[in-house]
Amino acid sequence: MKINYKQMKYQIIPRKNPQNNQETPKYYAQIVRPSAISLDMLSKRIAEISPLSELDTQTALLALSQVLPEYFAKGATVHLGDLGLFQTTINSKAAESPEEFTTDLIKGISVRYRAGVKVKRRYEQVEFKKV
Questions:
Q1: In the chain, what is the straight-line distance between the N-terminal and C-terminal CA atoms, in Å?
Q2: Which end of the chain has fewer CB atoms at under 10 Å, N or C?
Q3: Interval 50-61: pLDDT, tens
Q4: DSSP 3-state assignment of 4?
Q5: Dihedral of CA 35/120/60/57: which sign?
Q6: What pairs with residue 78 in β-bridges?
């Protein structure tokens, strides 16, 4: 199956105002996601456009998936060239003073992705198709 890499399908869905359930719903676009892209599928696609074999690509991606969490756990920002960067963030409750702050107030860790310039340029080329 040939994938159109420039086309993003979407549907229109109603959403109620969470602060006022009595309001009439408003309508928003929501991406109709294709099936999830597996490591195998990603490796095959990269092998199609590079001199690396599918196995070499898969090995590199597996290694990346093992190494990235090590850096994320240290709070590092990881730059992946034109792809963009990944940045670890923490969520916490507030304390009245620095002395009152304890690690119990830290509620979670997440990783944010920020697209690089080439990725942003690709976004500009996307054609939307209502389904």
A1: 19
A2: N
A3: 999 999 999 999
A4: coil
A5: positive
A6: 86
